Amino acid sequence: MASVNKTISDHGISLMENFPMEKYNTFHVAVNSKYFSEFDSDESLYEILDFMETNKLSHLVLGGGANILFTKDFDGIVIHPVSDNIVVDGDIAVADAGVVWDKLVETTVSMGLGGLENLSLIPGTVGAAPVQNIGAYGVEAKDSILWVEYAGVKDRKLHRISGKECKFGYRDSIFKHELKEEAVILRVAFKLTRESEDYPYNVEYGALRAKVSELGGVSISNIRKATIDIRSSKLPDPAILGSAGSFFRNPEVAKEKLDGIKSRFSEVVYFPLENGNYKISAGWMIEKTGWKGRAIGNAAVHDKQALVLVNKGFATGQDILRLSDSIRHDVENTFGIILHPEVIIL
């Protein structure tokens, strides 16, 4: 059945029925959503929420679709932000939810404002950044988020909460828990730092440090360039090869667990945490169990980065899920560690 376009409310909101979602998820899984609608203002979002409530629909807020795996059609309404304003005032940048994340990073770095350069080329939109607390190369979104504004799904009111109130954790936030069904993010403010002689550059990762050196030395623009170069060399372009970036979280373990693994695998890749525990590289474990480059049908583990699962063409969400389950089974049997997906599985 082909999608049908309807207009709802006096504001002329566009509403699509039986909408194909293949272009709205970076795995390029071919599923449909019962309804699909875009919002470009607070008012248009409230109209969509009214329609959703009247028709008793479940909802999914979807930006770039870079952190989701559809395993079936979505029997509700997908709400897609398209507002893309960026306003910079001094060292504070406020970006709408629909802004492409890397556009924000490019904009702020070009203005000499640091804080986001290590997060260059992460796919998705600004609205998804606080939900996932995106991170890379020793930096997380929480390090710069000043506040988040969201619309209450039930009360139709505008709310603003501070970065601290977002309860950020490793790839986690209040928007995955208490506010999971209660908030639609509208805009995010970032407190940045003007580049200067005492700017706190973060090049703690060896590969990043080496690449920055190759580019002529440390600066926020060189960190951005280096990050883009490294990510481009390791990660597939989702426009060409469907993927959602890192599929699994790096698991956290106690010292005793790590010591047990080190006694069998001296080359284990791990990182110390402030709480005394250790984060073990999920990619290393996946590679160690022999999955790097392997495929089940058209679902495969990327041959350059074992943490990335890819759609080689026409794989279903179920195909990718079966691959991830097989990987989790082998990692648990080998290391006694259960991997948890970083992506949202629907």
What does this structure look like?
Helices cover 25% and strands 28% of the residues. It is an alpha+beta fold. It folds into three domains: 4-81, Uridine Diphospho-n-acetylenolpyruvylglucosamine Reductase, domain 2 (2-Layer Sandwich), CATH 3.30.43.10; 86-234, Uridine Diphospho-n-acetylenolpyruvylglucosamine Reductase, domain 3 (2-Layer Sandwich), CATH 3.30.465; 242-345, Alpha-Beta Complex (Uridine Diphospho-n-acetylenolpyruvylglucosamine Reductase, domain 1). Helix 4 (206-214) crosses helix 5 (220-234). The model has no long low-confidence stretch (mean pLDDT 91).
Radius of gyration: 21 Å
Helix content: 25-40%
Number of E-state strands:
23
| Domains, number | 3
Mean pLDDT reading = 91
What's the helix count?
8
The major pleated sheet works out as: 5 strands, mixed
Percent of sequence in beta strands: 25-35%
How does the overall form come out from the CA principal axes?
A: globular
CATH topology of the largest domain: Uridine Diphospho-n-acetylenolpyruvylglucosamine Reductase, domain 3
Low-confidence spans:
none
Assigned CATH architecture of the largest domain: 2-Layer Sandwich
Return the CATH class of the largest domain. Answer: Alpha Beta
Distance between the termini: 22 Å
Structural class per helix/strand content? alpha+beta
Strand line-up across the major sheet: 1-2-3-6-4
Identify the notable features of this structure and list them briefly.
346 residues, alpha+beta, Uridine Diphospho-n-acetylenolpyruvylglucosamine Reductase, domain 2, Uridine Diphospho-n-acetylenolpyruvylglucosamine Reductase, domain 3, Uridine Diphospho-n-acetylenolpyruvylglucosamine Reductase, domain 1, 3 domains, five-stranded mixed sheet, five-stranded antiparallel sheet
